[in-house]
Request: fold
Amino acid sequence: MGKFTQKDMIYEGKAKRLYSTDDPDTAVVEYKDSFTAFNGEKRAEMSGKGRLNNLISSEIFGYLAENGVPLHFIEKIDDLRQLAVMVKIFPLEVVVRNITTGSIVKRLGVAEGMKLPRPLVEFYYKDDALGDPIVTEDHALIFGWASEDDLAQIKKITLDVNELLKKLFEPLGVVLVDFKLEFGRDAKGALLLADEISPDTCRFWDSSTGDRLDKDRFRKDMGNVMGAYEEIWSRLSARKK
Ligand code: TMP
Ligand code: ASP
Reply:
């Protein structure tokens, strides 16, 4: 990776490991071959998953960077690793829904597969022990998880990312159903999009067949999980730039 030397592992999550480098403002993110769902209750290892998510996520982050989105991503290092700006993550998962499926159908009893009149933005409190409960902006403000200004910036970036991702995936025959983002703040105080964008964190449906090309194949035991991730990577990497 040239510029920096990877040092100690500072955090191990369900899908990635984080390492410090000799620069305190820079981290190495390493993608693992692990799958988890339902708050870690269901687990599996699949060889090649870390590589595909790193390639997909790096490609998407590169595209978002070209379009002016402020990102923690600096560059892809190799098949499994990215160099990123060290950030402190807001304890919020920001979900955008364009079409109803998943938890919103269970929670509100609305019809499955409904195209929403505009993107729906939801916040979840990042806490594994509580199962990441849905919260309102007022919860975030009152409990000090983010300020009014942070939430305004987060929502603006989130909706911009939704439009950019729809524009990226539509010509590839992929419908962007919903996705989850995380944000952080760097040492200088800049608010940056962080974490990953991959078939683990998005729902992708094939626009002609409706085939699921994302982690729902793992969550619901639909089979051919890695085939779906391969398909997303093959369409993304073949796109005309
Ligand atoms: P949901 O319908 O289960 O709430 O998921 C909405 C979107 O968020 C979907 O694209 C999957 C993604 N997601 C994550 O990235 N991490 C999570 O822990 C959960 C529950 C969902
Ligand atoms: N990311 C969560 C877990 O690993 C849930 C999910 O994506 O379904 O448990």
